[in-house]
């Protein structure tokens, strides 16, 4: 898909937007991403039997959280550190600024994940009573659409903060490294390659619990289309925002 391909020569080595604009774009994308992630989790949990699933990384991390008895905050944070180390290996050198940026991203992102999870589950009843279980075909269909919307929100958010490139989620930094260093700017292929670590996580979780949770048609949708959505969002969501200060190491 043409919209998913952008070579490293077409992106910027420096920055053309101010720090205040960069921070604004980053905050917007962070909120969109965390809300989208939790939306996929909650809608999946409210359909019984559970066959909807969540976004690919989220599903794998949620399974690992169950396997080790961790909450989502610690699961996202610990695995973020592991992927940060992998990114350094792929780039070919350790960059403390980049690693610190990954950590800076993970702390508010992990916290927002917990906040949105509590919100969507109705733990703030004065604001929102939570999504009820889906007991009718209409509600099931509505939750499926919300799940797909969550995936689209994630893909769009990834596009925005990858282009800002201020600080990145380690998984999205991984995808960007793969995209511009190994796959000639193709977002789809890079996204699929970046799914290798969460696939290994899911296998490990299954080996421990002998069950899969949060895996279903929503996960398949994310696997097939999230990279494409990110590529399309590069040209549709804030189209004048170009990739800033790209650094993926030497070829």
UniProtKB/TrEMBL annotation:
Keywords: Membrane, Transmembrane, Transmembrane helix
Transmembrane annotation, as ranges: 23-47, 67-92, 99-116, 136-161, 189-209, 215-233
InterPro entries xref list: YczE/YyaS-like
The organism's place on the tree of life at top rank: Bacteria
Pfam families according to UniProt: DUF6198
Protein name: Putative fructose permease
